[in-house]
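TICKET #2291
ISSUE: user wants both folds in one file
ATTACHMENT 1:
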Amino acid sequence: MKNILYISSSARKYNDHNPQHQSISRMLGEHFLNELSADLLDVEVVHRDLSIHQPAFIDEAFLAAAFEKHSLSEEQQQILAASDLAIKEVKDADVIVISSPMYNYGMPAVLKAWFDLVIRVNQTFSFDLARGDKPLLPILSGKSVVLLASWGECEFKKGGTQHHLNHLSSHIEQLSPYLGADNFYEIASEYQEFNDQRHQDSKQKAIEDTIELAKLLKAKHVTGH
């Protein structure tokens, strides 16, 4: 059994009747999962739709429980319950797929809230001041993390004129080792706000690249070829 954790975060749905306002990141996620699980019976997909089941923002009580060095009270266990479940799903996953639009040059708030629940001391990273100025060290490994993104403008990819404004991709790539990523992959569709031929071409290429990446990771993580 190979486990896929799929995290979707767009406020829009994929099956919207208005194509201009449907979620392209969710569309890419669906193409990826369809290809990855095609003709296979030993793949389990856990889908967490953050727009429907929105993670709570961390607060002082959460931090106190997360950093508690002694046994947790019943109240603290309840406070960390959602985080514990999210971390278990990450630990169980062989491939983690994140579909996300770019909101205000970064990730949606619900996706950031999910990362804040998952990246937790002694669970997904260790902290040791003996390491000097870099005391954090990821605990998990052996996974592939895939970002399937969409944005309304353009030139946000590496080498593009607006890449310096892309805090979505860079942030998730920076956090991916704490999910256990040995490999990070990104595919994005551009020009959505323009709704012109450039957008159609970019979307089609993103679909094709997504399917090819799913085939690659199927061979690596599922079939073992």
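ATTACHMENT 2:
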Amino acid sequence: MTFSAFMNQNATQWVILIALLTGVFSIHNYFWSWLIPHLLKRKRLIFRMAARMRGPSRLIMLVLTLVIVVPLMSLDRGTTDILEHVAIGSLISAFGWMAILALEFLTERSINRLAVHEEEKYADRAQATQLRVLRQSLRILIVLLTAGLVLSTFESVRQYGVSLFASAGAAGLVLGFAARPVLANLIAGIQIALTQPIRLNDVVIVENEWGWIEEISSTYVVIRIWDLRRLVVPLSYFIEQPFQNWTRDSSSLIGSVIWYLDYTVPMDEMRRKLTEIVEESSLWDRRTVVLQVIDTTEDTIQVRGLVSARNAPTAWDLRCEVREKMIGWLQAEHPQALPRMRAELDTKGAEMDGSVRRT
């Protein structure tokens, strides 16, 4: 049947059908724009949920109108079958759409009630991460299930699927291999939601880059680098590869500061000065302050200071502050303690061969 013949077949009935669909569309708009807000103005939660369902509910009303009216029309069997398939497919899609919107509404409401941006709220951050990852996984499952149900309404597609599975062979292996990254990320998302190796706003080091977990999707993780770059990493990376998580159980960190000094440095005075510096700093969390000689060379000693702070950025700033103030103190009070080269002149030997002995 040509398109013109299709449209000319009982033209009056088509005009009536289009008019009915237009009327239902207008009624739905009035209902959702005026009546729903008036009826649910005191029930804000239900109103916000209903507002999100405007699109799928409109599609459902149009499909129901089509289902009721089409059997009353004098159409040939082929046209009726086409309209029935369109109606069934649209109805399944509308319910899938509605399920996704309900899932997003409920998870967003739960996430917004959590203090995910507060460093010490580990339980809230963990729960928000679980909700986000599970939402992404469930969304994929709903889309796949909806698409499968829509395609299964067509006999030709259903038979093709059966024949495809029956003749799996090499084609099945190719399809399975192609789908492996998607399935790996989907499984990794479920593992991350359950085991919590990373959470939103965790401080991590990945591929030698230091940053915060900014976003966790169904297939990738976005890391905000300290210089505001974004590192995008596949979700499966955090299951298969080692990485550093600085805030897995606590955001507190111990930072180290290294100085290379002369053997004449007064260690006791330096320890007292380090304690004085951190006590005057608002960055120190008053937990750890240690100064030790950790190595020696023929020219210098290696002195390490350990100081603690409440989080990674603060620890970095505290380390820089301690390093700068200690260098300034050494320059002002003990300049001889800074690294230097010594030479001892052997006057007796110098008279004979001019030798200089290095110490």
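RESOLUTION: both attachments delivered.
EXTRA DETAIL ON ATTACHMENT 2: The first strand starts at residue 203 and ends at 206.
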